[in-house]
Amino acid sequence: MAAPEKKLKVAIMGAKGYPYVYGGYDTMIKELGERLVKKGVHVRVYNHRALFKERPRFVNGIECIYTPAIESKSLTQLTHTFFSMLHACFSDVDVIFVVNSGNGPFGIISRIFRKPTAINVDGLEWRRPKWKGLGAKYFFWASKMATKFYDKIINDSDEMRRVYLELFKKDSLVIAYGANPRESVGPEPLKKWNLESRSYFLIVGRLVPDNNADLIIDGFLKSDSKKRLVIVGDVPFADEWANRLKNIRDPRLLFTGYVTDPEELASLYSHCYAYFHGHEYGGTNPAMLKALGYGCAILALDTPFNQEMLQNGKHGWYFKKSAESVNETVEKAESEAEQMDHLRNSARSGLTQKYNWDYVTGQYLEVFKNLAKF
Q1: Which of 35, 176, 237, 297 is the most exposed place for a label (fewest CB within 10 A)?
Q2: How confident is the model over 293-304, as pLDDT tens digits?
Q3: Start and end of every DUF1972 domain (predicted)?
Q4: Cα–Cα distance, 11 to 50 (Å, whole number)
């Protein structure tokens, strides 16, 4: 009787876990992990123990390991990956896949144990305003360490590849983040906020300075628009900057907080007059992919990353980093309704093959097999 065929075993760590979908990395682990399981891969995800009241060993075929962390704002994520990396190195996994460049230094552990590794470094964390001083220095150093200790560096955009080549003299493989486009989403969930289709502009993202919600709000309120500005998102901790925004009193502003129901979020995207994307740092952005997938007219901050995603203006308009530019963009968008219709109708065609989750999974699987010599 023939021995059963050996399965490729991949450990994934560095995010909150599975099936906890809260941010971009968590979504990627869900989309990637479920598809890898269907391709016959044994997938193990390291979950942040404190976030899971129930802790089943297997969920949808994915093995879940619940590792602890030192619970503090700056140490939680790093200590969780540290413990996860130790566990994985003492196990029989063939490949370790880590997300987040902050976990760069832990590659030295896997190197000592001779475990093949890949890391998705994603984003210019050291430039984000929330990591002032020591935090910024740490993320820059950690990203540099990632290029030294991990066997394969993965970025999700050509612009991020260029940055890593320039700063760290290290080439990386570009594998984009995937999207799940949807054609028809009804407006019914909008009733929850007394909204109607096309009656509002939309922002989706964490309320942190580098997403520039303050700039967009300021520019919008300077305009004569009769529409509303809906801000979806928050921060998971008490924050003076975010509170200042939420305390602005104007009937045109609507702060929804987090929207966790996927149908509600889909409806908010699908029926906005236009979607404002103020994200300043990072490669392929999940919120932007959702906006393309739901057929939004996109108004984006003019950055190299946003230029790449919108194919240099083919699938959106750009505004400069000033309230005056936002104001002009709002008024231009309202006066050119036909152009907004054109952007909506062509948005999904911006999701080329590289943003297809099945294609993305195939690329990752090839990386894992090569690393494991499978």
Answers
A1: 237
A2: 999 999 999 999
A3: 9-179
A4: 20
